[in-house]
Amino acid sequence: MSLAAEAFVSQMAAAEPWPDNAALYQPLKDDQILLSDCASSLAVQAYLRMCNLPVQVCCRANAEHMSPSGKVPFIHVGNQVVSELGPIVQFTKAKVRGHVSGWGFSSSDLQLCPEGSAVSPQGHSLSEGLDDVQRAEMKAYMELVNNMLLTAELYIQWCDDATAAQITRPRYSSPYSWPLNHILAYQKQWEVRRKMRAIGWAGKSLEQVYEDVGQCCQALSQRLGTQQYFFNKQPTELDALVFGHLFTILTTQLTSDELGEKIKSYSNLLSFCRRIEQNYFQEQERTFGPLPGRQSLL
Amino acid sequence: MGTVHARSLDPLPMHGPDLGMHPDDADLVEVEPETKQEVLENKDVVVQRVHVDGLGRTKEDLLGYEIADVFTAKNLIDVMKKSHEAREKLLRLGIFRKVEVVIDTSEGEDALPNGLDVTFEVTELRRLTGSYNTMVGNNEGSMVLGIKLPNVFGRAEKMTFQFSYGTKETSYGLSFFKPQPGHFDRNVSVNLYKVTGQFPWSSLRETDRGISTEFNFPIWKTNHTLKWEGVWRELGCLARTASFAVREESGHSLKSSLSHAMVIDTRNSAILPRRGTLFKINQELAGYTGGDASFLKEDFEIQLNRRLFWDSVLSASLWGGMILPIGDKQISIADRFYLGGPTSVRGFSMYSIGPQSEGDYLGGEAYWAGGLHLYTPLPFRPGRGGFGDLFRTHFFLNAGNLCNLDYGEGPKAHLKKLAECIRWSYGAGIVLRLGNIARLELNYCIPMGVQSGDRICDGVQFGAGIRFL
User: Within chain B, what is the greatest distance between any pair of CA atoms?
Assistant: First the structure.
């Protein structure tokens, strides 16, 4: 689709309210999903809960191939399919929460946005309260998490031979039968290793990667300080992203515990994760379902 | 006695019902007139020796079967006929470029007065041949580059490599073919292939990489094929706007299936036959030899042809099929049946009948389609005896239905479901015959019984293909 057509379609989509049957697709929870995918999926789930937008989690073996960009998770809302946290944040900013019929809204405190679409207090974007400097800072930290943490997760999963052979390849290929399982696992491994070579991570050793993760955690911990969330008292998409990655690393068993230990050494990050888990995943458990708990991958 | 030559005929050997020579298609032999009025037919002869000259890498035991019949000839006309048949058999092997037959009187010490020597002078094909063809499939065209190694090990084995670049598909394949010496109709072939296809009616893109082993053999008048096939299938959306039902089918799967096909073909030609019937039945069982797909698929095709008054032909055909899932896995969109288009129910767009979601056709699990055609020569018969004979006018009536079945109910419910909401169409047009391979049609169609969701193509519709309803 041309850019103009895409913009038109998103404008049309923006006019529709968030439906009740929105679904989020990710690989199979017990046998297939990998650390990096689980982290990304949890980040999106946390973000949507923070926005108070209900979404049902569906597990499919071919979720990665269903996604329009090839990455999980992706959400299916009405007629739209959007994948990855960045585009999903953009998409939800344009959406309206709740049922809207003409001008007779049931809720009393509604605000009108410049475009003319009504927004209810729960549905507006999480980062609206930030000024430009803070927004730039938030984007910078999100880039840090994506470039450091996510890449480190991919490196440990696919480039470390022990982890790849014992955990990653068997899990990735579990829905397929022989010999397709080996072909797909090796194909994906080759692809990830090629990407690592392109960004210059191929020469790094495992210890160096753990060091990098430690530095990233230190930066996050310093920014967080003693605050509840990264910016003010309201959570933003950065909080969702950091929570997704840290919580998954803490609750996933790999061949070694070093990654988890790095995070545990910063107590404010630990309490941050616990806080978000309590606020967004436990009290709404009745409506949204339980959080993915400890996964033992060995 | 003078020497008698069998005339060399040029057509290349091909598989299929057109293999045999028909009395009305070719002359047999020329006989030089004798100055003496001897009645040759009644003279008893004995074939003493049969030579094959010009063999290079071909093993001799292979040819023994083909030329054995010549020894049984009793008189001269019989010898000529049998040596002509042997020549055809040798050409059919596909290893000789040219075969010439020389019949001469025997010479030498043990020569009988009525003894004959038959010599086949053969020219073998080169070890490596290349070819460049254009191919017409079902409504698509493609350019095919081929490399062929005929007679690789000396017993008519053939190795082929093909690369095909087409409007819809790109593919390559490697195949190895080996006939049983003496019984060319029994053969084994092993194929390795990669095929990609684009299906805009379903917004689907499919890439198949597979290997198959096929075993053909005739039993009495029928031809059977047993095949094992293992395919790695990769499905994807053709456009960002594909419906979610098609998006859900994306991904990789492995199909390992055993199939059996039986063909009885008494038609005189595969394209525009004048008489004869065709009965083809095919079944495929997937899942018991590994793989992800698990189903039982049945498919049949019947065609009856009959000549009527004034050189016109009435043709009736019926197609049908059903696929049953085994276990609780749903049938993949790549295995389902599709219906509609210029090569099946005319008047509808290509494969645009049946279950659909947001404009993408998903195919169905059971279908039937029937056609009644009347082929007549062109009005006023222009170009008669030459070019005009390739054209026929045709009047047709097509009908069909495609749906998904609810397997909990019995067969009566299935038949009832297939009988409701029948799509049908009628019309007339012109058919052009392209050799023995394909046919082109230009029809004016009027579709009827259109259900909501079907896409029609009423008015003029063009079709090209090999297999038409």
Answer: 86
Q: Which residues, numbered 200 to 239 in chain A, qualify as contacts with chain B under a Cβ-Cβ cut-off of 8 Å?
A: none
**DSSP β-ladder status, A56-59 and A23-26:** parallel
Q: B146-166 pLDDT, tens per residue?
A: 998 988 888 889 999 989 888
Q: Where are the domains of chain A?
A: 3-280
Number of H helices, E strands in chain B: 4, 22
Quick one: angle between helices A237-251 and A35-50, nearest 10? 140
Which pLDDT does position B46 carry in this prediction?
85
* Per-residue exposure over B355-372, b if at least 16 CB sit within 10 Å of its own CB, e if not: bbbeebbbbbbbbbbbbe
Predicted local distance difference test score (pLDDT) of residue A11: 65
Rounded CA gap, B211 and B173, in Å? 10
Out of B247, B251, B254, name the one closest to residue A177 (CB): B254
Chains A, B: CB pairs < 8 Å: 39
B251 with A66: Cβ contact below 8 A: yes
Give residue B396's identity as a one-letter amino acid code. F
DSSP A199-260: HT-TT--HHHHHHHHHHHHHHHHHHHTT-SSSSTTS--HHHHHHHHHHHHHHHB--S-SHHH
B329, B316 Cβ separation under 8 angstroms: no
Q: Complex ipTM, two decimals?
A: 0.80
pLDDT of residue A124: 56
What is the C-alpha to C-alpha distance for residues B352 and B457, in angstroms, rounded to an integer? 10
- Residue B241 to residue A1, Cβ atoms within 8 A: yes
Predicted model pTM: 0.80
* Runs of H (alpha helix) within chain A: 3-14, 35-50, 63-66, 85-93, 132-144, 151-154, 161-163, 169-172, 180-199, 206-224, 237-251, 258-264, 267-276, 285-288
One of 1.10.10.10, 3.30.1490.20, 1.20.1050.130, 1.20.1250.20 is the CATH number of A3-280, namely: 1.20.1050.130
Kindly determine whether residue A184 and residue B252, on different chains, have CB atoms separated by under 8 Å.
yes
Instruction: Compute the Cα dihedral for B257, B229, B138, B312 and give only its sign.
Output: negative
Interface of B with A (CB under 8 A): 232, 236-237, 240-241, 244, 247-248, 250-254, 290-292
Alpha-carbon distance B245 to B336, whole Å? 14
Task: Please give the pLDDT value at position B18.
Answer: 40
How close A22 gets to chain B, by Cα (Å)? Answer: 13
Whether residue B393 contacts residue B378, with contact meaning beta carbons closer than 8 Å, is answered with yes
A145: closest CA among A85, A192, A90? A85
Q: How far is CA B421 from the centre of its chain?
A: 32
* Residue A97 reports pLDDT greater than 70: no
Q: Looking at chain A, which residue has its C-alpha nearest residue B234? A: A65
The bridge status of strand B391-403 relative to strand B423-434 is antiparallel
Interchain CB distance below 8 Å, B251 and A61:
yes
Mutation site, A172, A173, A176, A186, interface B, largest B CB count within 10 A: A176
Pairwise CB contact (< 8 Å): B290 & A178? yes
Among A64, A68, A180, the residue with its CB nearest the CB of B254 is A180
Q: Contact A180/B236, CB-based, under 8 Å?
A: no
Residue with more model confidence, B320 or A102: B320
- Give me the pLDDT at residue A8, please: 64
- Per CB-CB distance under 8 Å, the chain A contacts of B251 are 61-62, 64-66
Which residue, B103, B110, B42, B100, is CA-closest to B75?
A: B42
CA distance B196 to B201: 16
Taking an 8 Å cut-off on Cβ atoms, the answer to whether A62 and B251 are in contact is: yes
Q: Which residues of A touch B204 (CB under 8 A)?
A: none
Q: Give every CB contact of residue B355 below 8 A, 6+ residues apart in sequence.
A: B361, B362, B363, B364, B402, B403, B404, B453
Tell me which chain B residues have a C-beta less than 8 angstroms from the C-beta of A66: 247-248, 250-251
